[in-house]
Design brief:
The chain has 234 residues and is of the alpha+beta class. It is 25% helix and 36% strand. It has three domains: 2-43; 58-152, Barwin-like endoglucanases; 155-229, no CATH class. The protein has helices at residues 2-34, 37-40, 133-139, 153-160, 193-198, and strands at residues 46-49, 54-55, 59-69, 90-92, 101-106, 112-119, 127-132, 144-151, 166-170, 176-180, 184-190, 204-210, 216-223, 226-229.
Length: 234
């Protein structure tokens, strides 16, 4: 009789231990499931890197008078072979390579414009650049003193024409700068330089690119900060 009771007691204890083990396991699983996300997984330490455009050096061209040309030449072939469109932002210069981008500043008002050299001229004393009608109106010039600087074609090809992760952008003052691609967000691709500049909103930049054939592309973009892993200093 004594032996029988002892075996039954042992069996009960074993069953009790199994049941308690199951209950404790379920309790631990429930607790782990109910732990808030902030406790269950520590947040990833990051810092925000602000966009810092690096100004691109401009080439000093000349100070002098700007003039403009319009209707008589509209639709004709320019010296570069392109058709002259008086409603686009282009210009004539005596010697600079075709495709050079000029930053022309009205000395009287401080207003600036970017134009592409597509033609030769002007051939009148003291005049340093002949603007298209649209760019002259945008700048507010007739025969007016201007300061002319250039963004060289070589610099544009080096930056915009290579897969180096760097973008070439213009700010509202038409100052060219370089910035890492990851800081650039596209707003809209514009078909012409004139539309890119005249549609520019506050806080936007114009990104200058190059196609495989070497023609320019223009995009309105914004600059944003990016997340970067925070490396603790020792």
């Amino acid at each position: 009789m004594t032996t029988y009771l002892s075996q039954r007691t042992i069996a009960r204890i074993a069953v009790f231990m199994v049941v308690m083990t199951i209950i404790m396991s379920i309790s631990l699983l429930v607790q782990a499931h109910d732990v808030p996300d902030a406790v269950a997984a520590a947040p990833r330490a990051v810092q925000y890197v602000e966009p810092r455009p690096e100004p691109l050096a401009l080439v000093d061209v000349a100070d002098g008078l700007a003039s403009w040309y319009g209707g008589t030449f509209h639709g004709r072939r320019t010296a570069s072979g392109k058709r002259y469109d008086m409603d686009e932002f282009t210009a004539a210069h005596k010697t600079l390579p075709f495709g050079t981008l000029l930053r022309v500043r009205n000395i009287e008002t401080g207003k600036v414009v970017i134009v592409e050299v597509t033609d030769r001229g002007p051939f009148i004393r003291r005049r340093v650049v002949d603007l298209s009608r649209a760019s002259a109106r945008f700048l507010g010039v007739s025969v007016t003193p201007v300061q002319v600087d250039a963004i060289s074609r070589e610099d544009i090809q080096r930056i915009a024409g290579s897969d180096n992760g760097v973008a070439l952008v213009l700010d509202a003052d038409m100052q060219p700068s370089t910035i890492r691609e990851e800081h650039v967000d596209l707003v809209k691709t514009e078909p012409t330089l004139r539309q890119a500049l005249t549609n520019l909103s506050e806080g936007q930049h114009v990104r200058i690119g190059l196609t495989e054939k070497g023609s320019y592309t223009f995009q309105r973009v914004t600059l944003r900060s990016i997340e970067s892993p925070l490396i603790a200093s020792r």
